[in-house]
Amino acid sequence: MYIYYNITHLVMRQKIAFVQLIFSLLFGVKTFSQELSVNSVSDKLTINEIDRLLYQTSGAVTIKLSNEEVIRLNQKIIQVAEKKGYSKGEALGYVNIGNHLWLMGQYENAIKALSNAEKKAKGLDDPFLFAKINQEYAQVYYRIKLFDIALQRNATAISYARQNGDKGFLNYVYASRAIYFESLDKKDSVLAYYYKANNADPTPLGYTNIAEYYINNGKNTDSAEVNFQKAFRLLETNKFKDNIYEKAATFDNYAGLLTLKKDYQNALLKYDAAEKLARQAEKPFILLNIYRSKANVYHKLNDTKAEQAYLLRYTVLKDSIDKETDRGVNRSVTNIIEQNEKEISNSNRKEWILIVSLTLAGVILSLFIFFHQKRKQRRKEIDIEKKIIEKDHIIHKKDLETNELKLKINESFEHVVHLAKTNSPEFIKRFEEVYPEHYHKLQNIEPKLLNTEIKFCAMLYLNFSTKDIAEYTYVTIKTVQHRKFRLRKKLSIPSEADINDWILNLP
Fold this sequence. Notes:
Number of strands: 0
Radius of gyration: 28 Å
Strand content: under 5%
Structural class: mainly alpha
InterPro entries: Sig_transdc_resp-reg_C-effctor, TPR-like_helical_dom_sf, TPR_rpt
GO molecular function: DNA binding
Transmembrane segments: 352-371
Keywords: Membrane, Transmembrane, Transmembrane helix
GO biological process, one term: regulation of DNA-templated transcription
């Protein structure tokens, strides 16, 4: 499944290039965004220029910088924003840093950056900013397999995104929620949120994701075909006709449907078109899927030579991507693809030379090549074994980091629950530290809430039952029910709403 959010990289680059050309023709100077680096950030930047830099490093636009370079750039932006008293700029800078940290697998540091973003955003009235913060939190928790917390953060992001009204971002957070539910095998919810994403902002990829759902859950090729045709019609519109990324992803997935229908020749034609577009869009993971899928089609057609050729392409590209991921470097995708093609070209050239040499030299040269290839194959096997050991070491290290982070989060939750159960006077203070956003939402809804009422709301948020609250606050169950009634009236909770759900998802 693919998630698409915001304008396409190609169209954006064309628009920026056009504006730069007009600007330099009219004024004969270099435009602000021609060179994106730490040196391009100075104390003389205006608020609009700070916003432009933050947008350029947010992931919405393709830039040829590593994750580390983007982080350093945003750290400098934060310093300038702080001098100008621009809290929103500081918060967005920390959001960008958090995004690139989790892309590098540094999940604990990502959470620290997002925590700083929350502090800088405190007191601001900006739904889109809070939507971004919560969605980045959701992405971190999803990747360390804390799916329930990821869904909770994502729900908050959706709530803010609805206030902001950005349909493209709503598509993004809804589609993300579908993927989170997919990890929990909640198939009905998966489909529902893919439809919500597409209803917010219909895209070819939205219909493609729905089609893929039908293929993977019941092999419903008719429903898949209907949604693919909707995707193709959207690709013909002005909005998407130049969107090579969406075309590549749609063609790739549709070729999968043709393969399922055993229409192998047309499947290969679609894969060929998708491969060409994926190169232009600089999307290595789409190329990776195409190479593996084409190898599978050629296998079904008993074309061993073509199958091995695409398996080689798949292996070389996958090794390149894995190597860059292990080092935490966001290198240009173009370089990876060009290196991949160069290696394949060199491999093909060597094979041609070997064939010619065999023809000229005969049996003696054949024997030489045979033993040479055996030694070469052995070296490759040794290299593969080394890579496997290195990858196992990296995976083990990541597991240790993930478990450590889970332990810290669970310890905070357990500590708050313990304070509640022991009726500790420190309970409300600790709850505010662990759940600052929820605490301040309560204060905003009703500033005159008593400490006892805040404590009661906190226990409901922590999922204490009526019986539990009665036991740990030393009152009767009937008293707890009366408190719920008074709280519902004071907070204007609708009569049809469940008070526990309402407290968990404060508006």
